[in-house]
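hey m, so remember when u said the tokens were messed up on ur end? i reran from scratch. heres the input so u can diff it against urs
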Amino acid sequence: MIRVLFNKKGGVGKSSLAVNLAAISASKGYKTLLLDLDTQCNATSYLNAQTEVQDDTIAGLFEQTITFHIRRRPADEFAVATSIDNLSIIPGSTRLSEIESELDSRHKIYKLREALDAVRDKFDRIYIDTPPALNFYSLSALIAADSVLIPIDCDDFAIQGLFSLQQHIAEIREDHNEKLQIEGIIANQYLSNAKLPNRIIETLLDEGHPVLPVYVTQSVKMRESHQEKKPLLQLAPKHKLTQCLLDIHEYLEQEGIGHL
């Protein structure tokens, strides 16, 4: 099962959600892999998984597809263990931006899918954190994935960009990956007693958008977990925000396509 966290808008919590959902998945006994495809490497930093050996990052996984004199290593050989049992990560790299144009010009857009298909039997769940743009890497992730989760922050810009985003995903499904499904829209930074978030969610639901029924509340605890480099399940297992994320994971496993 491969899930992608994607939105073309930055600052909507993709990395935070990817790390925390992957950590919860691992805590439930699923052997879980997280890929960091964002050149900002936020997911990698969050899990304190930086490496100085660039060949052992996601850039190395891609770069070997354009270097023919070396042995191609399977994706699981790029994965490093984290402090969480059952959770590994393929660390991000700023070098992704340097090799993107060559990968694109040499039509390597399906190489991530090939790499992950080859290790599906080694992981129960794979999560992919993507850059805030529809570029080579986010497209590679969507081509490789079974489903996409779309985080939004609860402001008017969320509605403005959502229709075009869903259109892009529909085109990718038609042209590249017929099994790709939008598993849900995750409302992030939600304030229950504020009028704007509730109005936005009501509008999205009225228009038929698949907003998940659990909303991620706004809390300073998320920033604290970034600073401590610990997912919320480790830092504050009984916190309300942690419970929101646990509820989202449970919903996805029971009601989404995660049970397939």
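this time it looks ok to me. The beta strands are 2-5, 32-36, 80-81, 87-90, 125-129, 147-153, 181-188. if urs says something different then somethings off w ur setup not the seq
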